[in-house]
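*** Fold description ***
***
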Amino acid sequence: MTAPADALDPVRAELLRAARAEAEAVLGRARADADETLRLARGTAEQVLAQARDLGAADGRAAAARERVRAAEDAWARELAARAEVFADLRVKTRRGVRQALVDGALPSARFAETARALLGADARITAVQGGGVTAEVPGRRLDLSADTLADRALARMGVRIESLWDRP
């Protein structure tokens, strides 16, 4: 036996069909919105990632530039220290050489006294200096012709020519 047909069955079926159709439409719009949101989010993420890469690359370039400057400064400081060491050694050897020349008589001590009197006058008080040479004084003036001072003056007269020590052969 079949159940009697209800007069509202067609209405219910139509409401159910309409509800399903509406649900399908809402679900379709929701899926489309989700897809669009996902597409926009991916685009935004790609832009953010590209900006982050650019910023990272810029930071990396800046850090590399700072490191190059620091390395150049360190190298220059080491070179200057080495130059100072070589110059100090040259100064010691030059002083030693001038002192030895005085001991050997290559530079007569009497000549220093004559030079001092010629520069300061006959009244100059002449004093022998340990290590060789003399100092001379008159009121208001002093002359140092010691071995070490003469060696230092010889190096100073080289002026910028001393830079030739650092030239590559």
